[in-house]
Amino acid sequence: MASKQPMGYKCRIAVVLLVLLASIAALVAVAVIQDTWSSKEYSIEYGIVIDSGSSRSTVFLYEWPGEKQNETGVVTEKENCRVAGNGISEMNVDPEKDAQSWKGFQTCMDKIIKAIPAEKHKTTPYLSGSYCWDETATESSNPAYIVNPCYPEGYNTTIKASSIYDSECTEKPKDYNPDKEFLMVGEPDSEKCRSIVKSIFDFKTCNSTQCSFDGVEQPPVTGDFMAYAGFFFIARALNLVGTSQMDQFNTSLTEFCNTNWTVLRKEKNWISERYLRTYCHGAHYVFTLLTDGYKFEKETWPNINFEKQVRNTSIGWSLGYMLTMSNMIPSEVKYTYPMTNPVFAGLIFLFSALTIITVVLVFIILIRICY
């Protein structure tokens, strides 16, 4: 009997230790499984960018998966809406037209908001930006009669001083009179228009081996490039979407500038007249910027691809703005675990209780053996 008693204690200790180790192992396994087998579910994030251009405004809606790549959202365009009415350069001139513009803006915002899930309305950021484009270049010896070498032949218009100077893009002269009228007469001269456009830039100041303009260092251009937004619309007007030759672009530009207004309206009837009149100046601006500014030459010009969209997403500053801002917008993450919270808590409680009980039993058995 004496020999059987120690043997019985040894068996009890072995069983208790086995249960203890099993409980600890199960406790660790449950915790590890719940943590490592969990998965993340990212919601779709949204952002609104209001592009307030000088001649037009557009509202863009972008979306991207919450899971980012290199801390940047993979942004795509979901919706865009062109605001009916004037751009910022023509605001604060005519209250009635301003009211129409605000109404058009509200219509676009209503359309954009409807495309966003209701639960995302409060977390969707609104981002806005604006820019100004000096669309005309003029000269005159008569203060009330202005000859514009960048306007087409046959295009004449009477404008008030307020339509020029009552905007964020121009500075008022000292003798400013908002009701003063000017007769703007188009007398096309492509070379003179180009010369006036070039005067906008400073191509002389340079403290480096090569500069673009205004003293900014410009390394030689290499590789492929994409020209979008205003660049694309200018190229489309010249029938040169995609790639082209430098001489081809220059020739088409000159022909466009020398085309009579009546012919131009007929040939380019898909372009609004309010914008069509500015395309000669815009084309010279683009050509000057790319050649004299960025130093594209005959050999590198074909590397420029004039495109509007990539994968159904309009390319412009608003997309780049949204890409940058997506870094700062936190993503909503939903964690999915292999076990529900009640099951996980129940297993943890069970195996924790078994561990505590077996530890207590081990102490009781050891005390009885020792004493």
Q: Can you tag this structure with a few keywords?
A:
four-stranded mixed sheet, 11 helices, Nucleotidyltransferase, domain 5, alpha/beta
Structural description of this entry:
This protein is of the alpha/beta class and 371 residues long. The chain folds into 2 domains: 4-38 and 337-370; 42-326, Nucleotidyltransferase, domain 5, CATH 3.30.420. 41% of the residues lie in helices and 18% in strands. It contains 11 helices and 14 strands. Helix 5 packs across helix 9. The longest helix has 33 residues, at 4-36. The radius of gyration is 35 Å and the shape is elongated. The two termini are 19 Å apart. One of its GO terms (biological process) is nucleoside diphosphate catabolic process.
Architecture blueprint of SSEs:
Layout lengths: L3 H33 L2 E4 L1 E9 L4 E9 L10 E7 L12 H20 L11 E5 L8 E4 L2 E4 L7 E5 H5 L15 E6 L3 H9 L26 E3 L2 H8 L8 H12 L3 H7 L5 H4 L2 H15 L10 E3 L2 E2 L2 E2 L2 H10 L6 E4 L4 H30 L1
Parallel strand pairs: 2-5, 7-9, 10-11
Antiparallel strand pairs: 1-14, 2-3, 3-4, 6-7, 8-9, 12-13
Helix pairs in contact: 1-11, 4-9, 5-9, 6-9
